[in-house]
Structures are given as C-alpha cells and as structure tokens.
Amino acid sequence: MNILVAHTADLKSRELAALVEILAEKHKVFVCGMAVDSHQRGSSFSSVETPVMFERVDYKSQLAAVYGDTKKSFDKFSKVEAYEFYGTPSDAVSVMLSEILTNKNKVDVVISGINNGWHFGTDIFCSSNIAMAFQAAFEGVRGIAIGYELKIGGHSANEMAAPAAFIKQNLDKLLKINLPPYTILNINIPASESVKDYKGVKVPTIGKLEKLSKYIEKVDCTGEKYYWEEIVSREDKTDDENSTANLMKSGFISIAPLTYDMTNHKRIDKFGAVLEKRARKEAR
Amino acid sequence: MKILLVNEAGCFTPSITALAKELSRSHRVVIVAPLDPLRGAGHALTTNYKPLRAKQWFVMRDIKIWSVSGTPCDCVSLALDKLLKSKPDLIISGIDAQNNVGEMLRTSGVVSGAIEGAIQGFKSIALSAVINDPNNEREFAKVARAFSKKLPEIYKTMTRGEVVNINFPSNPKASQIVATHITCDTVQNKYKLEVNPFMRSFAWLQNRTVGYGLEALESRGDIYWLKRGFITLTPLTLDILNKSAVSAVENANFKI
Asked: In 3D, which of A272, A280, A281 has the Cα closest to residue B178?
C-alpha cells in the first residue's frame, strides 16, 4: 500500500519519525513536511498568490544528522521518499496528490501527523493537521489526522512508542471503516508509556464550540501597540464525559468522524419559510 | 444595530466600503479588515508566528476603519476583544468578489471570518457575489443594496452564534433567494511544476477543477441554485461531527 504522511511541522520532528517508522515496515511511505512549522494555517492556500517552493529531501540522512551518531540505525527510513514545502500545509498535500504521487505512486491514504498537540473543539477549524486530512478527502483519498498530547519541545522516541503502536495495530481497521465521502477521521491520543495502558477507543462528542479569544496587549520600543493571542486553557469544563478533553483525561483514545458538510440541515426549512414569506410580501 | 464588517480583500477595497456605506444608512458600522489583500486565507491564524498590529484610519465619515496585520479570523477575534468599544449585534464578512460555494468554503477567508465570528458567539453572515470588476464600487453597491433589504428578516431568523453563507449570482436585482445546502464535490488541482533561476523547484496552482459531477448537481445544493440565477443562503453549523459515521467507527473493534 502507498501512504502519504503529511506533517505540519518540519521533517526533523520525532512525532513524524515515529509514525513513518512503523508505517515503512510494510508499506511504501511518502512524506511531506513543512520547511517552517505551520500550525494554525487552517485550509489556507498560498499557491493562489505565490509559487510553492519544494524539494526532495534525503529523509534518512537528515534524521541521522539530527538524532543519530551512525547512519546505520536509520536504515528503516532509506526507502521513504520525503519532500519539504514552503507554503501552507494544504498546498503541500495538494501538490503531492495531484502532481507528485501519480500513476504507480498513487496513495491509498493520507495520514497527517502525528501532531504534537490535540485538535478538538473550535481548534478543528484552524488546525493545519485537520485541513491536510480534508484536502485528501476532497481529492478522493482517505484522510486521517492524528494528534498526540502536547509537549513543548517535542517528544522523545520512547514517548512516541505508545501512539505509534496503536496506529500500527489498527491501521487496517482504520482503513476499513466505511466512511461517507468528504469525511475524515480525527484521532486524539493521550500521553502514555505503553499502548496497553489505554482504556479503549471512543467516539467523542463535538465538545464546546464556543470560545472567547483573548489578546495580550503590549507596547514595542517605539511605543506602538501589538497583540498576542492568549492561550486559552484547553480544559473542557463541561460535565460531558465523552467530550474529547475528558476522554483524554481518563485515558481513552478518541476517534471522531468529521464531515466537510457544514450545512445546518435542520435550519434550511426555517430560513426557507421566512424567505418565501418575504418574497410573497414583495410580490404583493 | 451595531455591525462589525470584515473581509479578505483589504480594508480600503470597494468590496467592503460599498457595503459599509450602504449599511451605515441605518446601522452603526465598524470595519476591521486586513491591510494587505489576502487570497485563500482559510481559517489561518497569525499569532502562532508573529504578533498582530492594528491601526485606525480616519478616512470615512461615520465609519470607523481599523486595519489589522492578519487574516480575517484574526481581525474578528482581535476586534471583539480589543478594538471595539462595545460588542456588535452582527458580524458580516464580505463582499467577496467571487462566490463561495461547494468546496470553496474551506479556503475562503471570507467564510472563515464569519465562522470565527460564530465561534466567538455572535451572529455572523458571509457574503459573496459574482463581481466582474473588483475595482468597481458600483457593482458591489448593487449587491449591498439588495442584501440590506433582505437583512432584517435574515437577522431576525438567526440565532446566537449562527453563521449563514449568502451568495449572489451575477444579476442580483432579478433574483429570488433560496435556502439550501452546501454542494460537496471532489476537487482536482492542477499545478505547474517548474524550476526557478536559482534551480529550485516550485509548484504553482494553475487551475482548480471542481468536480460538479452529476450527483452533486442533482442534490440541488448551492451550486445548482446559483447557476440558475438564485441568491443562495446556507445556514452553517460548527458541529461537523458526522453522526451517520459514528456507528461505523464504534463498531471497528480497535485493538489496544
């Protein structure tokens, strides 16, 4: 099977390497990563405005240079074909799927991740990782986004063993799920030492879809104001035990099927009736 | 009522000033929009990489204009937290000079701006139209006029934190408005692969072929109605969990 692993951070990330390592054992793996960490880019497309620079990268040597003394231990990565992009994550996936991975290299699934950080609640709209999975879905390929508990500075190889093992054990099952079109799987995994410690897998509720962004106002050396968005606590304060935040706390893995169809079907009739009434009034 | 206007094309473009002028006849309007024109901004946020700057411009009477060094979503949330003195009753994102239907909703900064408004808990409207010349304020003014006539009814029907996506066809005067759903269809992007003078390879988007397959058109969604000259209104929800797929995931028997 051909798999494209798409990553919002750069190609040196341990989270990416952990996923590629287990997938490359049995499958042909392609990797696209970003030259610069590109979180929170949503589904933005920079290639409308500017060309997207990219280059083929020797993934094995790059990992060896960053993490290893000898190149020997990175042999598993020698067959991995990796590309590095300057642009937005959606661009990267789209260029890979429509121009690079054609004919015999056509991929069966796009797995975006493993992201250093979860995506749930309102984050699913601005998450680059989710956007990459949706890009795959739109080009007719199954998209799976994986997020792992955030650790500032990144995880070590040992810390990534549990989520990688879960994906390895369940890849076939993830691919066999009968999904409607334009639907992706959003997987969130809590930190754990071993895959055996997980309590199970649950489909979460969508969670709290409202947040009030807060900004920190500061003044630069010339007296001009500037703003940083404050990190709002991800703690989901609802009592809903099936919200992703609470599932993470209690050691479950959450897998949510997310659809692109944002239509609020229940409200169409209501608006239809109001608009029709208005049209009749105008006609009179 | 008090209306916050945002767009993707920039705070001084005819797309937003035409709308602001029309709405300011009966409402209080504040523009908070990107200074630089953006395209395909999607739901990108900026402060992961750099701080935002905001600047107030005194160029229009009755209408306050703020420029923000970010995306439409940045504009909305910064405006609500820091720039506006009081909370708006409504957020309008637009007018986008091209329609945002089907798959385009994803990459559109205009629609994402409205979605961000809903995330913050406000009634939000994304407004797009077919505009032949984006520098011609009169074209936008025509759409703005037709829209403002329909606004009171739409506003009254909306609930807190709801988004509606409105699209105008090329001749708004003669059109009727219809409530419909998003047309989902596959996309085929075509890129030009080249090498620049520094021998670095790049890809540049040449065209986006949206499937518009028979199935999609038969489903009578926004694209179907828009092609037939109707104004479309699509109520959106933030709850994108696909309930019809939940049981399939639950029954997958994952191994721990």
From this structure: A272
